[in-house]
Amino acid sequence: MDRLRLAAVLAGLAGVAVSVYLTVQHYQGVVPGCPVVGPVNCDAVLSSRYAVLAGTSLPTSALGILWFAVGTALWIGGWRRPIYAWAGAGLAFATVLVFVEIVLIGAICLWCTAAHVLVLAQFLIALTIWQRERR
User: Fold this and answer.
1) Residue 99 CB contacts under 8 Å (≥ 6 apart), including other chains
2) Residues near 94 by beta carbon (within 8 Å), at least 6 away in sequence
3) The whole model's pTM is what?
4) What span, in angstroms and rounded, lies between the C-alpha atoms of 28 and 14?
5) CA distance 24 to 130
6) In this structure, what DSSP letter does residue 32 have?
7) What torsion do the CA atoms of 87, 92, 96, 98 make, to the nearest 10 degrees?
8) Half-sphere exposure of 105 (CA within 13 A, CB side)
9) Are the C-beta atoms of residues 36 and 103 closer than 8 Å to each other?
10) Which residues 6+ apart lie within 8 Å of 37 measured at CB?
């Protein structure tokens, strides 16, 4: 496995860990170790109506578990074309979540930001590999 794929797998595993942590905290009703006042306010984000899928009690972080797990499996399996689409879809969804945090809620969650950065990392790795293959 080359270094880029390994980095993507490690980012995926870290993303699963962050998403599991946020999901467990959601069901325990606990605010994860994060400031709770001002613009960095995990409580404001994680207790907002956007913290769960509309019409359910399923936390958005549960989707993160699924996204990172599937993405990690794709990276391990070496399925390049599905990886590109998966990484692009993940970046699009993470961008929407960042918009929701900043514009609609008016606060950001550090744990959520960590997950978003890991999504971005996987996207950039996929883009780099795609560009190399086109040469």
Assistant:
1) none
2) 115, 116, 119, 120
3) 0.92
4) 21
5) 35
6) -
7) 50
8) 25
9) no
10) none
- Sequence-ordered alpha helix ranges (H) in the chain: 3-28, 42-46, 60-77, 80-99, 110-134
What value does the CA radius of gyration of the chain take, rounded to a whole number of Å?
15
Strands (E) in the chain, as ranges, are: 36-37, 40-41
Nearest to 7 by CA among 121, 95, 110: 121
Residue with tokens 């490690």: 10
Tokens 């972080």 correspond to what residue?
61
Tens of pLDDT, residues 49-103: 999 998 898 999 999 999 999 999 999 998 888 999 999 999 999 999 999 999 9
